[in-house]
Specification:
alpha+beta; Nucleotidyltransferase, domain 5; Substrate Binding Domain Of DNAk, Chain A, domain 1; 6-stranded mixed β-sheet; 15 helices; Heat_shock_70_CS
């Protein structure tokens, strides 16, 4: 039986795990790391870099790296969404042929599902390196409040990566499984999942291995990145000249550098009482360097981010309200997501519920571990876990005046089916359009348009003679189908919202074929060869990271002092890194080992 895997495709970091063996475990990368930064970059010569290498590329050329793309998967491009992204990220959002969101990084414009597919492919390769065989069966997690379009786009990304998705599993449910609540726990659990880019709260009733989701709430544009951005603005406030501050604010490399410093400081004050921050900023060679020397204390950090923590608690209250519960009714609170390491958040959660939250499982790994447990259950047909999820957001029909008539209410138990009867807008109408929308808004413009059903060839008669029955059906994974039938004539139409809602079938197949070719070119067949290649590439990766860091340091030195030696050495490093990238992807093990030594020779003794 081939092994199965669980994947947490995260906004900031992703992880892959397996439950094949005595206990669930995270699958380490070839570099020895347990998490893959959810970053994809395109180098000057058009080569793909993923994870830490993309992070380093982003410090030099932030516009060449796609980050936090999970926030845009399955979204439709709008001018408002593009403007919002422009304020947050150095890349641009572009509309695809089907109005899907695409991301322009460097010279290339890529569909979001393709970028996610690249991340999934990288995680799949890590699993295959471990097992020495092809791995396809997987459970992939998604936020509980993901829309139908976002879920189908995630499946599309998995298809591009060559994965067979056994199930899309809601992240909070996966976390609860990782905490072992399927084994003997009886009661109510609240999952507090604050990651890098999204926030989810789920309330679950668990008994005898049955996971019943009572309510979900969340914010898809709230996470650790927002805390980092608050710190970036605080750091920029140390620049007293307003004109200089304005230039620095719009310099992408400067902002990316400050974000890196902010994230590091945030982590440090989560375990220590203060963090020293030192930076030299320069947005334009015509102006002098701007030094920043400051100290971030834990009390001041907590004061800065308190409004954001209060926002998180308001979403917790929303979830409890929709579950008809009070804080005292919750038996255990599970912490998930890297941001839950922040002491202030843990303190506020403990105070809110009157009990210490459960943090036994690494918050960055819980979701992937839970997904792996469920994947093993599905493949090996073992375990008695029953997952009862709910509708993530309301589904309805746009009616006259741009209003929305809800048909499927948010937090309805899955699977579910509901119907409503509608009438044509006027007498004599022979064609009826049924616009389907998703969201909590009362007006269609406040919701997401999902699809449109069209009933034609109706008999021209009084509008009240045509009863148009519209039925929404959603399966256990939250996948939607909508049907409409005219009871008078019997004319009917049905749409199944599947993985073809984002990319055209031909383009999706082409991307999947391209990714398969990429895997074939970089995947050895023999298990021992895999092990040796893994070891060699781990060493090369370490050398590449060291040289890239040196390149960044020299770049800063050259910008600040115009030092000729720094510029000269920096110029030598660039072609070496390009060569290393090519060797890492297509070179033999001997070539990889030789390249490692060549890079190490460039580093100062």
């Amino acid at each position: 039986m081939s092994p199965s895997i669980g994947i947490d495709l995260g906004t900031t970091n992703s992880a892959v795990a397996t439950a094949s063996g005595p206990a669930p475990r995270i699958i380490e990368r070839a570099t020895g790391q347990r998490l893959l930064p959810s970053l994809v970059g395109i180098t000057d010569d058009g080569l793909r870099v993923v994870g830490d290498e993309a992070r380093l590329l982003g410090e030099l050329s932030p516009e060449r790296v796609a980050s936090a793309t999970k926030r845009f998967i399955g979204q439709r491009w709008t001018p408002e969404l593009a403007a919002k992204a422009r304020l947050l990220y150095p890349y641009s959002l572009v509309a695809g042929p089907t109005e899907d969101v695409r991301i322009r990084i460097g010279p290339q414009t890529l569909p979001v599902s393709q970028i996610s597919g690249m991340l999934l492919s990288e995680l799949r390769a890590d699993a295959e390196d471990l097992f020495g065989v092809e791995v396809t069966d997987s459970v992939i997690t998604v936020p509980a409040n993901f829309t139908d379009a976002q879920r189908t786009a995630t499946r599309e990304a998995a298809e591009i990566a060559g994965l067979n998705v056994l199930r899309l599993l809601n992240e909070p449910t996966a976390a609860a499984m990782a905490y072992g609540l399927a084994n003997g726990f009886k009661g109510t659990a609240l999952v507090f999942d604050l990651g890098g880019g999204t926030f989810d709260v789920s309330v679950l009733r668990i008994q005898d291995g049955v996971f019943e989701v009572l309510a979900t709430a969340g914010d898809p544009f709230f996470g650790g990145d927002d805390f980092d951005n608050t710190l970036v603005q605080w750091l920029l406030s140390h620049v007293h000249d307003s004109a200089t501050r304005e230039r620095l604010t719009h310099d992408r490399a400067t902002v990316q550098h400050l974000k890196t410093l902010a994230e590091r400081a945030k982590r440090e004050v989560s375990t220590a009482e203060f963090s020293r921050i030192s930076a030299t900023l320069q947005a334009d060679s015509r102006y002098g360097a701007v030094p920043i020397e400051t100290m971030l204390t834990r009390p001041f950090f907590e004061k800065l981010v308190r409004p954001k923590t209060e926002h998180a608690l308001s979403i917790v209250e929303q979830a409890l309200l929709e579950a008809n519960l009070n804080a005292g009714d919750v038996d255990t609170v599970l912490l998930v997501g890297g941001m839950t390491r922040v002491p202030l958040l843990r303190q506020l959660v403990a105070k809110h519920f009157g009990k210490e939250p459960d943090a036994r499982v690494d918050p960055d790994e819980a979701v992937a571990l839970g997904a792996a447990i469920h994947a093993a259950e599905l493949v090996e047909k073992r375990g008695k876990t029953l997952l009862l999820d709910v509708v993530g957001s309301s589904m309805g029909v746009q009616v006259a005046g741009g209003l929305v008539k809800p048909v499927l209410a948010r937090n309805t138990m899955l699977p579910c089916r509901a119907s409503e009867v509608f009438f044509p807008g006027r007498d004599g109408q022979t064609v009826v359009r049924v616009p389907v929308v998703q969201g909590e808004g009362k007006r269609a413009e406040e919701c997401t348009r999902v699809c449109e059903l069209v009933l034609g060839d109706l008999t021209a008669t009084l509008r009240k003679a045509h009863e148009i029955e519209v039925t929404f059906a959603m399966d256990v994974e939250g996948m939607l189908s909508v049907s409409a039938v005219d009871k008078l004539s019997g004319v009917a139409e049905e749409i199944r919202i599947d993985a073809r809602t984002n990319l055209a079938a031909s383009e999706a197949a082409q991307l999947a074929q391209r990714e398969a070719q990429h895997r074939e070119e970089h995947t050895p067949v023999d298990a021992e060869e895999r092990r040796q290649n893994r070891h060699a590439r781990r060493a090369l990766h370490g050398a590449v990271v060291a040289v890239r860091r040196l390149q960044i340091e020299l770049s800063h030195v050259a910008r600040e002092s115009e030092e000729a030696d720094a510029k000269e050495l920096s110029a030598l490093l660039a072609p070496a890194l390009i060569e290393a990238d090519i060797v890492e992807r297509s070179g033999t093990r001997e070539e990889v080992e030789a390249m490692t030594q060549k890079l190490l020779a460039l580093l100062p003794a």
